[in-house]
Amino acid sequence: MLKIVIHFSMRKLKNEELKRKSVEEFKSAVKIPVIIILDNVRSMNNVGSIFRTADAFLVEGVYLCGITGQPPNKEIHKTALGATESVEWKYFKNTVDAISELKKNNFKIIAVEQAKESVFLNNFRREKSCRYAFVFGNEINGVSEEVMEIVDECLEIPQFGTKHSFNIVVSVGIVLWEFCRT
What digits encode the pLDDT tens for the residues 41-100? Predict the structure, then answer.
């Protein structure tokens, strides 16, 4: 008996095959109902990478607070790869002011942190009619205590190794992926 085996080889897609949005198309597209709040993030590379991740997931915007760097900035630009042009952003001297503005606009504020009353991300249930703002904190100190006192909820990403935290960019990616998946 003759057996015919058909083998398909994998190949990477070319950029033009990806059908990515232009900046104009991105700006007019329907976004996921999420604002990312960066609470005193030190690394400009992290900020740029978060812009790039925000672009990939079509988030409404990024709020840069406190010492968090702002575009235009060479280090941010290096990792954002142009996402600072597509993703809306705002700067606030104080993270509490950013949260106050969002609460007035009926956003649910959720810290991503390890805390006593945190909910593991895999147990989070998204309300489809709700708009969310996820707060990510400083690379060393996390989300500030001042901010933790005023958030509506706290999510924690389960971890199983010896380290007690993920890089902030990894955390943003995990949270946004899980949010979009549910």
Answer: 999 999 999 999 999 999 999 999 999 999 999 999 999 999 999 999 999 999 999 999
Q: Is 40 left (phi over 0), alpha (psi -120 to 50) or beta?
A: left
pLDDT digits (tens, 9 = 90+) for 122-169: 999 999 999 999 999 999 999 999 999 999 999 999 999 999 899 999
CA angle (179, 28, 177) in 5-degree steps: 15
The Cα 32–Cα 53 span in angstroms is 13
How is 114-181 classified by DSSP, letter by letter? --TT-EEGGG----TT-EEEEEEEBTTTBS-HHHHTT-SEEEE----SS-S---HHHHHHHHHHHHHH
**Please, what are the domains in the chain?**
28-181 (3.40.1280.10)
Q: Per residue in 34-54, is it b (16+ CB within 10 Å) or e — as a string?
A: bbbbbbbbbbbebbbbbbbbb
Specify which residues 108 forms β-bridges with: 132
pTM over 0.85: yes
